[in-house]
Write a structure and sequence with these properties.
Order of helices and strands: HHHHH
Number of helices: 5
Largest sheet: none
Radius of gyration: 17 Å
Distance between the termini: 28 Å
Helix content: 55-70%
Structural class: mainly alpha
């Protein structure tokens, strides 16, 4: 399976926050986080934790899995760009 470069979850979250018509500050207050934390996510400087996924799911009518999966796809793609696995030996069925 070839993965493409997925967007940071903050880009998707921005679509949701923009649809509310509320400011970042107002949204942050309503989901009980600081404006800085929300801003960092929206700008791609912070990821979405399990706790944040629950808050976002409650606020935007999604499931926490939506947010966790977006973060997972983003993290895995970027890790794959950095990690060389070509010399790692498969341990369950080593070559004879």
């Amino acid at each position: 399976m070839i993965m493409h470069n997925p967007p940071h979850p903050g880009e998707i979250l921005r679509d949701y926050t923009d649809a509310t018509g509320l400011s970042v500050t107002e949204i942050a207050e309503k989901i009980h986080i600081s404006r800085k934390v929300l801003s960092n996510i929206l700008n791609g400087h912070a990821g979405i934790s399990a706790e944040m996924a629950w808050k976002l799911s409650a606020a935007f009518g999604t499931t926490p899995d939506v947010w966790i999966n977006l973060q997972k796809q983003y993290d895995l793609w970027h890790a794959r760009q950095r990690v060389d696995i070509s010399t790692i030996e498969h341990l369950l069925h080593p070559a004879a």
